[in-house]
Design goal:
Length: about 190
């Protein structure tokens, strides 16, 4: 892979994005997003390609493969020894907002931002008629076939008149589980 020279930009804001833009163009959006997730808002120093080892601090933070790809693409030989990594917050936030099942709290925790920021972006997307994922999900996961079968067995034994302590000893089930099922049956009027 031939190394490309960095393009000089006139605006200060563009200079901050120049290296990350080059990483996005050469290595893809996923590599740039992973870099922003790990080092967003920081200035990182690049070692020379010969000095990058799996024990190097950059390799320990980013993972050796990603660090190697970045150093090989943008090395000090191109004149860049350090650069600012923007957080890419709007890009990362819009991607997470479009996913179903993520609550505002979970998004805020992942991006280390306030919930209010997530609410503002969610509202802005809705006003612009950009589709936003639904944060709702079922309160409890459905029972597995094995768990459903176990519940049926306990219900049957309780209905036959076995005591919770007998069922606990025979099936080696915690007493709280049996008492919960028994209370549920009593509530339904089956016991």
């Amino acid at each position: 892979m031939k190394k490309q020279r960095l393009i000089a930009y006139a605006g200060a804001e563009d200079k901050e994005w120049a290296v990350v833009t080059q990483i996005r163009e050469l290595l893809g959006d996923d590599a740039a997003e992973e870099l922003a997730t790990i080092c967003g808002g920081e200035r990182i120093r690049l070692p020379s390609p010969a000095k990058l080892t799996p024990e190097h601090p950059l390799a320990l933070r980013l993972g050796y493969q990603l660090a190697r790809r970045i150093v090989d693409t943008i090395s000090p030989a191109t004149g860049v020894s350090s650069f600012y990594v923007p957080k890419l917050l709007p890009i990362r936030l819009s991607r997470l907002l479009r996913e179903d099942g993520l609550t505002s709290r979970e998004i805020a925790q992942r991006l280390m931002i306030s919930q209010r920021t997530v609410f503002r972006y969610r509202q802005r997307f809705k006003e612009q008629k950009i589709q936003v994922g639904e944060p709702s999900r079922p309160r409890s996961p459905p029972l597995t076939k094995q768990a459903e079968r176990g519940r049926q067995i306990v219900e049957t034994l309780l209905a036959e008149g076995h005591s919770p302590s007998q069922i606990r000893d025979i099936l080696n089930v915690p007493g709280e589980v049996i008492l919960t099922i028994r209370a549920h049956l009593h509530k339904e009027g089956k016991s």
